[in-house]
Design a protein that fits this description.
single chain, alpha+beta, 3-stranded antiparallel beta sheet, 14 strands
Length: 520
């Protein structure tokens, strides 16, 4: 029988060589003291892990025939069920091994890939979409392998290394439920046809009942199955709310289309959103603001409990709100608006040409340029018709007031995108189910309430909000404790009440991610 000790010596030598080759790159890093174990290449991690076990193999029996030991067998069983974590078992199939040494290396290398994918995602966000400004956690592969090997229960240790975010864990349970639903045949499509309304009798109603029963929106009941009765209406409204549709109870083309999305497509949606959560921190902060662009919703969480929820308006398709995290540092009341040059040229110039009084009526001030001390210009003195499309050789500033595009307050987290949360005078847009109308910033349904609750949670007097607003003067209020804000994009999730939610892919980001993961 060939023992493992000579192999360990060879592996140790290989590790030293790999580290020596890696060292120059580490030395050039902007971090003067990199974490050597976190920065090692996968082969070096595996070499270091196995070299540390000079007294025996990690995952195989000590005999001439390559045979997994109990820990190795447990690892392989988890890898074979990788779909439970939204991963693909085919990515973690062990290659053929002709010796215990090669099998030990294969298990280590495959386990490392699985744990890395599980913790940080299968693909890097920037490779999916250059507009994603999220940065997955650094993965210390050696520490992960050591943790799994040292644990008394291998499968549990691997499960515990999955993302701990509650939304991720709920998605994982949902994935199991929907895969079981798929194995049972999924659901049958509802035939297209005229809009069905409460009180109507139609053969298609029985198909709607059948469809809603499959996802537990409706509990099957006896009676006239072709009659659109109140119980079915309640179920339809719930289904519409869960899918971001107008909850009017009318079964029109959009509702039928949502009902007819195949279960396999919903499974793919769940998998895509699980991948997104591998890019995110497990903890968003005891106090934080969470914006879901695809859901057009904002939650303000204080002490781990949602204190305020509201609708939001996000960027239109050609001015998408970026995905990133930052920190709200101050609030600005009665704000002015310095109009970005792009918005002035592309959005406002056509309106000014159509109505020369547009600027004066909207409370805008026109300046000759962006330099300090640039003189004001009378809008009536400008030959607007002569200014070419796409150019705006002036600077615009909108004074505080009821017509100001930012409304009465904005929540500032200075960032490279010039994106923030703010009020809006266009209140009627919050009644719409799809709300992507902004130029990139996030407009709030309840901005004054959010300001009051946030200041109260910060230990400040919330009654100052009304006093400042009544004063009509631009006023900045700094937060004693800045609040983390996360701008995210989720098209599938389970709410805190257990409601399964799906949303349309308004920015095409699901398609980009599915293509990167090979799920198209």
């Amino acid at each position: 029988m060939t023992g493992p000790t000579p192999v360990r010596a060879i592996l140790a030598a290989a590790l030293a060589l790999l580290i020596s080759l890696t060292a120059p790159a580490l030395a050039q890093s902007s971090d003067p003291t990199p974490d050597s174990t976190a920065d090692l290449a996968p082969d070096a991690v595996v070499a270091a892990f196995l070299a540390a076990r000079a007294d025996g193999y990690a995952w195989v029996e000590e005999n001439e025939v390559p045979t997994l030991n109990a820990k190795g067998a447990a690892v392989v069983r988890v890898l074979e069920r990788a779909e439970r974590q939204g991963l693909r078992p085919a990515d973690y199939t062990l290659p053929a091994a002709d010796s215990p040494e090669s099998l030990d290396q294969a298990v280590s290398r495959t386990l490392l890939r699985y744990l890395t994918d599980l913790q940080a995602g299968r693909v890097a966000p920037k490779k999916v979409d250059p507009e994603l400004f999220v940065f997955p956690r650094d993965v210390d592969g050696l520490a992960l392998l050591d943790a799994v090997h040292a644990a008394p229960e291998t499968a549990k240790a691997m499960a515990d290394l999955a993302p701990g975010n509650p939304i991720y864990r709920r998605l994982r349970r949902l994935l199991l439920d929907y895969r079981a639903l798929a194995r049972s045949g999924g659901w049958h499509p509802v035939p297209e046809g005229p809009t069905l309304k409460p009180g109507m009798t139609d053969p298609r109603v029985s198909e709607v009942r059948r469809r809603l029963s499959s996802t537990a929106d409706l509990t099957p009941a006896s009676g006239a199955t072709d009659l659109y009765d109140p119980a079915l209406e309640s179920a339809v409204r719930q289904f519409q709310r869960r899918h971001g549709l107008d909850a009017d109870g009318a079964i029109g083309a959009k509702t039928v289309a949502a009902m007819n999305v195949p279960v396999r497509d919903r499974i793919r949606q769940i998998v895509l959103n699980m991948e997104r959560f591998r890019w995110m921190p497990d903890e968003f902060g005891d106090d934080h603001v969470f914006v879901n662009m695809a859901g057009f919703e904002l939650d303000y969480v204080v002490g781990g409990v949602t204190r305020l929820a509201m609708r939001v308006i996000v960027g239109r398709p050609y001015r998408e709100t970026p995905i990133f995290s930052d920190t709200i540092r101050y609030l600005e009341f009665n704000p002015t608006w310095s109009v970005p040059a792009k918005i002035a040229a592309q959005d406002l110039l056509p309106k000014i040409k159509k109505d020369p009084s547009y600027l004066t009526a909207g409370g805008y001030e026109l300046y000759a340029g962006y330099q300090d001390g640039a003189p004001r210009v009378d809008p009536a003195s400008v030959d607007w018709a002569a200014i070419p499309k796409g150019r705006f050789p002036y600077r615009l500033r909108q004074a505080p007031g009821e017509k100001n595009a930012l409304g009465q307050v904005k929540f500032m987290f200075p960032n490279q995108f010039d994106v923030y949360l703010h009020d809006t005078p266009a209140r009627e847009l919050f009644a719409k189910s799809v709300r992507n109308f902004s130029s990139g910033c996030i407009r709030l349904q309840k901005p004054i309430t959010l300001a009051e609750v946030m200041l109260a949670a910060d230990g400040q007097d919330p009654t100052q909000v009304r006093k400042i607003l009544d004063g009509k003067k631009t006023t900045r209020v700094n937060l004693k404790t800045p609040v983390p804000v996360h701008l995210t994009y989720l098209t599938a999730w389970i709410g805190e009440g257990g409601t399964v939610e799906f949303r349309d892919d308004i920015y095409g980001r699901d398609s980009l991610l599915a293509n990167a993961l090979g799920l198209i």
